[in-house]
Amino acid sequence: MTKKQVLVTNPSGLHARPGAEFVKVANTFKSTIKIMKTDNPAKLVNAKSIIFLLSLGIKRDTLVELQAEGEDEVNAVETLCALIESGLGE
Amino acid sequence: MEKGHAVSKGIGIGKVLIYQQFIPQVEPTIIEDTMVEQTYQDYLDIQAKANQEIEQIVQLLISKQDEKHKIFEAHHEIINDVAMAETIENFIKTEHYGHIYAIDEAYKMFIEMLETVDDDLIRERIADLKDVKNRLLRIAYHVPEKNLSRLFEKTIVVALDLYPSDTATLDRNMVEAIVTEVGGPTSHTAIIAKSYQIPAILGVKDAMKTYNDGDTLIVDALSNELILNPTDAVIQNYIERKKRHLEQQNILKTYLDKTPITKDGIKVDVTLNIGSASKEEIALEPYVDGIGLFRSEFLYMENTHLPTEDEQYEVYKRALEGFKGKPVILRTLDIGGDKTLSYMALPKEENPFLGLRAVRLCFAHLDIFKTQLKAAYRASVHGNLWLMFPMVGSMDDIHKIKSVIEEVKSDLDSQQIPYSKDVKIGVMIEIPSIILVIDHVAKAVDFASIGTNDLCQYLSAVDRMNPLVSSYYQSYSPSMIRILKMAIDGFNAAGKPISVCGELGGDLIAAPILMGLGMKKLSMSKSSLAPIKHLIVHHTMDTFKSLAQKAVTLETEKEVIELVQKTLQEASHD
């Protein structure tokens, strides 16, 4: 399994448009990908689901952790972290 | 019939269209093993059909260059969500639910999950999920789609509630007004009605039963009246009123840049209430005499952490510079009661409005309080800062505030950080007890501003969030006027500035009385600036004074309202 933490910096967090963009990219990978807020590890959810992602209510300045398991796990985590760091187009 | 809320002002006249969305009745159904594959295929067919319908709406909106196509793209995402697909597949294949039952249960589960998230943006998404669920179930029951996109006459839409699907495709040329049974001032329907400038009255109980398709209905969202099957004379009268209202709206806009001086030459300060010192707020600087209320709590509420001293400093500096030396009244942190912070666990209280809120909370968390004061004093060199403290109830509170300020100043001195020596210290007047000692208060502080919303709540012992007692919340009651008079007299006698920054500051009934009582500064939200300036330049201070003198002698709120309306009407005919 590959894990990495990343800080959400775009103004609206992982909501609406940016959240949908994130999920779209997550779905291009074969690995199972999960996401959680580092201050609430009990809620670890499917990062390929916009509904689960919304249920975390991730706002700006939240530290999140991505976990992937599968053949393209390293690539998945790196790509998604870079996407969040880039501000998701905001 | 119970009165609703006129959330979007104006008048609409037209034929009633009872808009009943499909309301599915779902029974728990369990299927035989042999039916599983067919049932799952049924679900996939419904999903495909829904995707098709949504795609058509997206194309229609794109062709009209309407930004709302994005809402429906989000509907695609929900329908095709992997977790949603897995859940429904599991309900059918493992639990053997019928396809309708599986759809209903899966969506309900996800809606409940999102309802636990405390976030306004998420609440809009919940409306989307409900919308998508209804679409799927409607298709499952083979019911054709009903929508408001093609109407053939001037229509009053009467509905239980409206979803994004209904409002996005709504025919704006034909919809004269909206009436719904549920929904308040901050609901989806209210926001849409305001942005389309369609008159709307929401929360009208039993509207769907009271009206029938084809009834003629006048929706007067100016005085919150609904008139069913009016006579021709009444219709004519309302057509005239509607015309006048639209003309007035256009004239009012031209008053934004007028100087607020009464006909007999008295200048009244008109100031702005702001929340974040945004670009739009600062752009209003040329039209106002300063900031009458900077609600600093927004800085705290919009954040995911306590804003640091530097973060606060930048925002305060922006406001002070933006208003170019005009007074900026910064209210210190006002949370507790109905306002909470997601990242700070505050104790649960039996009576939060009577509890540890505003300056009381700051006294209990001196570190937070001092951080804010330090940021404000550092920013004070960039403009004309007036610091105001909310929920002050006694002279003890004022003494405590002053000693904290002294500590903050000596910290700054020892670090050789510059700050303005002219920062004014004032209190927000909202607890009645402080008005009973107003002579002491006026000596001890530099200024005061009246928060009329809380003052009314505390004066009349009415929880302003409780709809059961809303008729007891009377902002124009003679008791309110008398206590306002005491506060104004106290500060005027001491020769110190007093203003009003609550709802009443921008209210066309209360403002004439307040000015007549001797209030020289009114603060309000942006939308009230032009109407209040219009009021000031068209009347004399004498009119306001004699109005106020009469108002303090009256017995009931109703009499006060009638007096103001009558006096202003007569005065404008002179």
Please give a structural write-up:
The complex is a heterodimer of chains A (90) and B (574). With 90 residues, chain A is of the alpha+beta class. Chain A has three helices and four strands. Chain A has a four-stranded antiparallel sheet, with helices on one face. The relative contact order of chain A is 0.34. Chain B has 574 residues and is of the alpha/beta class. Chain B contains 23 helices and 15 strands. Chain B has helices at 36-63, 69-79, 82-93, 99-115, 120-140, 164-168, 188-196, 207-210, 232-253, 279-282, 297-301, 309-322, 359-364, 366-379, 395-414, 432-436, 438-444, 452-460, 478-494, 510-516, 526-537, 541-551, 557-573, and strands spanning 5-8, 11-19, 155-159, 175-180, 200-202, 216-220, 225-228, 269-274, 291-295, 327-331, 384-389, 424-429, 447-450, 498-500, 521-524. In chain B, the strands form two sheets. An eight-stranded parallel sheet of chain B has the order 14-13-12-11-10-9-8-15. Chain B has a seven-stranded mixed sheet with strand order 1-5-4-3-2-6-7. In chain B, strand 6 (216-220) and strand 7 (225-228) form a beta hairpin. Chain B is globular and about 85 Å long. The relative contact order of chain B is 0.08. The model of chain B has no long low-confidence stretch (mean pLDDT 91). At the A-B interface, helix 1 and helix 2 of A face helix 2, helix 3, helix 4 and helix 5 of B. Chain A: This is Phosphocarrier protein HPr. Chain A: Residues 1-90 form the HPr domain. Chain A: Keywords: Cytoplasm, Phosphotransferase system.
Give the tags.
heterodimer; A: 90 residues; alpha+beta; four-stranded antiparallel β-sheet; 3 helices; 33% helix; globular; B: 574 residues; 48% helix; Phosphocarrier protein HPr (chain A); PTS_HPr_His_P_site (chain A); cytoplasm (chain A); HPr-like_sf (chain A); HPr (chain A)
Short description, anyone?
Chain A is α+β, with helices and mostly antiparallel strands.
N-to-C span of chain A: 30 Å
What fraction, in percent, of the residue positions of chain B are helical?
40-55%
Structural class of chain A: alpha+beta
Element order of chain A: H for helix, E for strand = EHEEHEH
Strand arrangement, major sheet of chain B: 14-13-12-11-10-9-8-15
Q: Which structural class do you get from the secondary structure elements of chain B?
A: alpha/beta
Helix run count of chain A: 3
* Large-scale geometry of chain B: globular
Main sheet overview of chain B: 8 strands, parallel
Task: Please report which band the strand proportion of chain B falls in: under 5%, 5-15%, 15-25%, 25-35%, 35-45% or over 45%.
Answer: 5-15%
> Would you count the extended β strands of chain A for me?
4
State the helicity of chain A in percent bands: 25-40%
Strand order of the largest sheet of chain A: 1-4-2-3
Shape of chain A: globular
Multimeric organization: heterodimer
Instruction: Indicate the radius of gyration of chain B in whole angstroms.
Output: 28 Å
Average of per-residue pLDDT values of chain B: 91
Q: Quickly count the helices of chain B.
A: 23
